Fold:
Amino acid sequence: MPAAVIRPVAIKIDEDTRARVKRLADARQRTPHWLMREAIQQYVEREEQREALRQDTLKAWESYRANGGLHITAEEADAWLSELEQGKDVEPPECHA
Structure:
């Protein structure tokens, strides 16, 4: 796999934020550049996960609507899961509208 091309990107931050980043970087014995790059990577990963969850939720909602709103209640699910936890081989409850 070829190495990723890394290109510089400039961001504009206020002086207070810049000083805070510098203090934190010094405390962590890292450069401000490393700290900002790490922060951006963590933010992007977290937001990608949130977006994937949002997309899964939208798909589930569309499936729910397409199936006429079939569902089981939380109480039904809890009772079924409780029996499974006890080692019983039970079928899931019937879905209803």
The chain is about 65% helix and 0% strand.
